[in-house]
Amino acid sequence: MMDSERRPIDFNYIICSLFPYICHQKSMKKLISFLSIFSLLFLCNNCTDLPVKLVDAGKSNYQIVVSTEADSITRYAAQELQFYLQEATGCQLKIVTDAEPAIDYEIWIGRNSRELMDAWKMDIPEGEGFLTAISKPVVLIAGGGRKGTLYGVYDFLEKYLGCRMFNANDVDVPHHETVKLPATQTVSNPVFQYRETLFPIPIKSQKYADWHKLHNRSDIRREWGLFVHTYQTLIPAETYFAQHPEWFSEINGKRIKDGQLCLTNEEMRNELIQNLAKLMDEKPDAIYWSVSDNDNYNHCDCEACRKLDEQYGAASGSLLWFVNQVAAAFPEKIISTLGYQFSRKPPKNIKPAENVNIMLCSIECNRALPLAEDPNEEGFRKDVEGWTALTSNIFLWDYVVQFRNYFDPFPNLHVLQSNLKYFADQGIEMMFEQGSNMDISEFHELRTYLIAKLMWDPYQDPDAIIDDFLKGYYGDAAPFIRQYIDKMKDALLATSKKLNIYGYPIDAVESYLTPSLIKEYTKLFDQAEAAVSDNTRYADRVAFARMPLEFAILDLSTFEIDNDLSFFKADGNQKIARQDMLDKLDLFCNNCEKFDVKALAEWNVTPPAQFKENILNMIKKGAIKNLASEKNVELLTTCSPKYNSKGAAALTDGLFGFLDYRYHWLGFEGEDMEAIVDLGEVKEINYMSVNFLEVPLSWIFYPVRTTFYCSTDKISWKKVGELSNPSTENLPHYAIRNDEVNFSPVAARYVKVVANSMKTCPEWHRGYGLPCWIFADEIVVNDNR
User: How confident is residue 32, by pLDDT bands cut at 50, 70 and 90?
Assistant: First the structure.
């Protein structure tokens, strides 16, 4: 259904609706009732096109009416209307109950016992929608569900008083001497029955969530007993794996801890049902209970599970077969499961049970083009249409930020409306847009605002919503920020590049983050800052909006893109750190503290302090006069062709690997690294170092041991240092370790670095038993006396 349906009061419809009511009255009372209501309705009908003066020169004849039986939310809605009317006009309207005598002019909040109320009862939505009826002498705002009336009040304040709530702390309230309302009747219903966007503002501010008609984590806590990735809760490996490894995924003939469950194991299923029943007893009012995959790909490959998947044509087959049996044990509850990654493809010859909900996810999709139009997303569209053919009980989980780098510019605003419209057209009723959760991210205020409006009605004009936000939130800087947004979007669409939710600024260096475009963006933000320099409120907002651009400049400069995008300047044969770039790094980190930015990536894998430390370590190491720079490297072990950068030369090319393992790192899969550098001539040295990357989520671990050797002839080797450091048992963890040794001066022409890998992922890891990686970069050799 569209967002709203506007029409003048239908006089004949109302009379017909009232007729049965009137006929139930006693004869004399019936006539009086009919005549009084008829007169009032005749007046309303003939005043349909006349504006209603709610406030005139700071005064009002209206009072606010609530039912004596009104719930707390409806009473709160009346108080909110009273408060903001007074804020806007200086006029305080009295709040009364319907037990008190009526006066000529009233605003009714929610249903009440006034006689004329019967004329509108048929139009008040049953769900979370609301009716707004404006006609002399009555204004009615009434909704269904728990909060429909409150939503109607906030909609009224936005529409007729121009109030806006752009963030968690402020409501912008324009001043009005006079408030004139157009006579109208509007019914507004949400297109999506569940609407949540996972950003910090609606999570922290219930007022913001209600103002924008959003659900938030409080609704999840009330209605859901378990929410997503729950196998690890229902059958925890720490409790069961030692005694029952057969309950867990079999991968390549091995049962693993950090995987999924063996869904064909009847004993495990019975235990899971018992555990779930205990949790339900602890939270009896919860309706939804997730029985769903852990967040990894390790779907069980045992013979029985594989047979079911073959029978049903997809990995979701054994999952649905299993979940339907769990759902049968709890017919009064809704059991939710995932269509996610390996289970996204719908099965054949099996349907979800009536009380099974499918949480369908779009994690792999390109964000550069609308899902309905992108030729690369035909598979996703096929999966959506396949699931909707099986069930209408679908919770669509979409993704709207850049998770690997929350402050990486991410030009996806242009697809948000079209994607939501596509989901609505497919009949999806539950919509979840995953943002940066409790963390602050690029344009998170704008994204939250835009998505909230579109979740209620995805058929609106997104540009009008964006412009409304920019004007209200950034003041005179709005035109420049609008140009920044549009220029970046146009640059992306001018290429065929994809937009990935797990990317880096370097991915866009040939599309929307080219050096020339960065200069243009910088100029736009300079103009934006100048436009609001005399207004601290707007200036701070513009300074925060600029942070992603500054992050991109800093991150790209670790790649030494050009003379501008680099932390170094040349001084003869030596690199020297640029002070202006160090100042830029300090300003970015200071702004992180000022604006309470705690994390630069999902799971807090890159706090701002670590980001700064990584860059400073790179600068420190890059400024060392490296005797190994550009020298020939011989590998005695084989690097992987998947991530070999420049091959062996990457170890001495002067370009330091950062947190993206795809660039400047040399990868070894299931292998040690053994590298020899030829310094070209015998030199006296007393320092050697090499960097290693650790990203356990990507199966990348530090070496268990790093050993350094020197030689004059490449035959006899002298060990000059050895380091042994364990890896971290922490899956969402990104870090760079500099293994370095200082030693007494040694004459050497050749240096050798041996890094011993674990070879295979450890038992605690989801890739247990499979080859793991070490990533190395930049061997540094020096006489640092």
Answer: very low
Mean pLDDT of the chain: 92
DSSP per-residue string spanning 133-157:
EEETTEEEEEE-TTTHHHHHHHHHH
Examine the pLDDT at 13 and tell me if it is beyond 50.
Answer: no
Question: What are the tokens at 375?
Answer: 């030729």
What value does the mean pLDDT take over residues 84-103?
97
Beta-carbon contacts of 146 under 8 Å, excluding residues fewer than 6 positions away, are: 73, 128
Beta carbons within 8 Å of 325's beta carbon, 6+ residues apart: 269
pLDDT at 98: 97
The tokens describing 331, both together, are 């017919």
Describe the strand order of the beta sheet including 138-143 as a list of residue ranges. 4-7, 184-188, 130-135, 138-143, 106-109, 63-66, 95-97
pLDDT-based confidence at 644, cuts 50/70/90?
low
Question: Would you say 81 and 153 are in contact if contact means Cβ atoms under 8 Å apart?
Answer: yes
Distance CA 236, CA 275 (A): 11
Residue the block writes with tokens 């939250």: 448
Q: Which of 370, 346, 366 is nearest to 356 (CA)?
A: 346
* Phi, psi of 703, deg, nearest 5: -65, 150
**For residue 5, pLDDT beyond 50:** no
SS (H, E, C) 20-35: HHHHCCCHHHHHHHHH
Q: At 364, which amino acid appears?
A: E
CB distance 84 to 115 below 8 Å: no
* Residue 3 pLDDT: 41
Question: Quick one: angle between helices 303-312 and 316-328, nearest 10?
Answer: 100
**In this structure, what are the phi and psi dihedrals at residue 605, rounded to the nearest 5 degrees?**
-75, -15
Query: What would the two tokens of residue 628 be?
Result: 């190994």
Which run of H or of E encompasses 389?
A: helix 378-390
Give the whole-angstrom CA distance, residue 303 versus residue 317: 14
Copy the structure tokens of residue 329: 């044990």
Task: In whole angstroms, give the CA distance from residue 509 to residue 401.
Answer: 19
For 333, phi and psi rounded to 5 degrees?
-110, 165
Q: How far apart are CA 316 and CA 111, in angstroms?
A: 47
CA distance between the termini of the chain = 76
Backbone φ and ψ for 340, nearest 5 degrees, come out as -145, 125
Tokens 């041996």 correspond to 754
Report the DSSP beta bridge partners of residue 250.
Answer: 255
Residue type, 194: Y
In sequence order, the β-bridge partners of residue 746 are 685
Please answer whether residues 257 and 237 qualify as being in contact, where contact means their C-beta atoms are separated by less than 8 angstroms.
yes
The pair of structure tokens assigned to 129 is 């929608």
Confidence band of 49 (pLDDT split at 50, 70, 90): low
Q: CB-based contacts of 548: which residues, under 8 Å, 6+ apart?
A: 407, 408, 409, 410, 442, 443
Instruction: Give the span between the Cα atoms of 669 and 776, in whole angstroms.
Output: 12
Q: Helix, strand, or coil here: 563?
A: coil
Contact status, residue 138 vs residue 106, Cβ threshold 8 Å:
yes
**137 preceded by a cis bond (ω within 30 of 0):** yes
Let me know how many helices (H) and strands (E) the chain has, helices first. Answer: 21, 27
DSSP character at residue 368:
S
**For residue 651, is pLDDT > 50?**
yes
pTM of the model: 0.91
Residue for token digits 């300047």?
569
